[in-house]
Structure formats: structure tokens, C-alpha cells
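REVIEWER CHECKLIST
Item 1: Sequence provided? yes
Item 2: Single chain? yes
Item 3: Sequence as submitted:
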Amino acid sequence: MRLDGDAWRQFFDSFTRDAFRLETLPAYNVGSEKDEYDNFLTTAQLDIPDDDPWLARVRKFRETGRNIARVHVITRPLTDYLRYEFAVYRHTVTAGEDVRILDLTGQSNPGLPAQDFWLFDDAKVVRMYYAADGTQLGREFLEGIDPAPYVRWKETALRHAEPFTNYCSKQRI
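Item 4: Structure as written out by the authors:
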């Protein structure tokens, strides 16, 4: 089932324990981020207000005892988009999101797919589809599938990734 707009938000917000995202692309082309991204490229600054809708949602998830986490699989050097994304992560981590980085520079992939997905409560999988330039083509709730491979990929990603702040300190980012 395709999930868009309000249906996606309602589906997303219905998780009860945890939401996990695996990100695998070096750049995403998100229309709603364009002005912010362009400004970041010009100024190297990012100002996200405390009342930003995503940050407010992350705080609400945490306040209600729900965890939200992501692992972004990368290789260095960082793309301009990843530098921007890291600036965003500084805000989302402060709001309560568990962001981790899996840097595969000089090492092999520990068995993760080259496919973005969300996993909710270790039971519901939403695959994310992107064009070659990182433009989102859609998201699909995979009804009736065995979530076990996605749970294993989540566990593998979390086991091999570093917490965002530790990674940035170590890499001096």
C-alpha cells in the first residue's frame, strides 16, 4: 500500500514503541528543504527553530515513551548534502532522536541492503523509493511480509554504527 500525505503521517505517528530508519543515500533531493539547503550551502549555517514540526514530533514521541532512531550509511568524503544533513542531525539529536552514523569508508558493508526503509515496532515495514538524484518516488507499506530480515538489518546497523555526536567528535566534523 502506497503511503502519502496525511495517510503517511497518521501511519507514522501510530507506532507504539519504536521507529527506525535506515538511510543509504549520499544525497536526498527534498523539495521542502531546497531553500534551507541552498542557504546552508551559501552560509554554512543552519538555524532550525525549536517549534519546527519535525523537532516537535520527535519531542512528543520521546515524551510519550516512544523511541525514534536512524542509521545513515555513508562513505567519506561527505557530500554537500551530508554536511547539511549533519547540521540537521545536531538539532534532531537534541530533540531526542537517536541518530547514528555507519561510515563504510575503507571497510565492507556488514550485510545491509542498499535500500532505505522505516521499521515500526519491529513489525511494520515501509520501503522508501528514490530516483538516482535522491528525489523520493514514494513509500510503500509492505503488508503481509515477514519483518524478520528488516529487524536483523536494524540490529546490524545499530550494532555497527556510532552515535552521531561521537562520530562527529572523532572525525572533527
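Item 5: Key structural point noted by reviewer: The mean pLDDT is 96.
Item 6: Recommendation: ____
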